[in-house]
Design goal:
Layout (H helix, E strand, L loop, with lengths): L1 H30 L4 H15 L4 E5 H5 L8 H29 L6 H15 L4 E5 L2
Antiparallel strand pairs: 1-2
Helix pairs in contact: 1-2, 1-4, 4-5
C-alpha cells in the first residue's frame, strides 16, 4: 500500500516530468540511427523514473553473473558517449528535482530517489530494472 502511495505522489510531484525527459531522450535516440543502442535503455529507465518505488536498477552482470555487450568495454564506451550527449543533462534534471524535494521533510524519500536516478543517468548502459526483493 505504501509503495502505491509513494509512487502516486512521486508521479504527480516530479516523476512525470523526469520520466518524460527520459522518453524524449529515447525518442531522439530512436530517430537517429546512431542512437538506437541507447533508445531502449531510455524507455526502460523512463518507466522506472515514472514508478521507482518497489524497483531497483542493477547491473546486468550482477543479475546474470556474466558479461554481455553492455557490461564490457563496449558498454563503457557507450556510457562515455551517453554521458557527453544526454547523461549529464538528465542527471542535472534529477539533481535539481532532488534539491526541490529536500526542501520539505516529506520530500526526502523522493529526493533520494532522484539522486539514485541521477547516478543511473550518468551511466545507464549495462543496467536493468528489476523488482526489489
Amino acid at each position: 500500500m505504501f509503495r502505491f502511495l509513494f509512487n502516486l505522489l512521486w508521479f504527480v510531484l516530479g516523476g512525470l516530468v523526469m520520466g518524460l525527459g527520459w522518453w524524449l531522450a529515447g525518442l531522439l535516440c530512436a530517430i537517429s540511427v546512431v542512437g538506437l543502442p541507447w533508445a531502449r535503455s531510455c524507455f526502460v529507465i523512463g518507466n522506472f523514473s515514472f514508478w521507482p518505488f518497489g524497483q531497483e536498477a542493477i547491473s546486468r552482470q550482477a543479475l546474470t553473473g556474466r558479461h554481455d555487450w553492455g557490461t564490457g568495454s563496449l558498454g563503457t564506451l557507450g556510457n562515455v558517449i551517453w554521458f557527453l550527449v544526454a547523461g549529464l543533462w538528465l542527471a542535472i534534471g534529477h539533481l535539481t528535482s532532488a534539491l526541490a524535494c529536500f526542501l520539505t521533510v516529506v520530500g526526502i524519500p523522493f529526493g533520494l530517489q532522484h539522486i539514485k536516478l541521477a547516478q543511473i543517468a550518468l551511466a545507464p548502459v549495462g543496467m536493468t530494472v528489476v523488482p526489489k526483493r
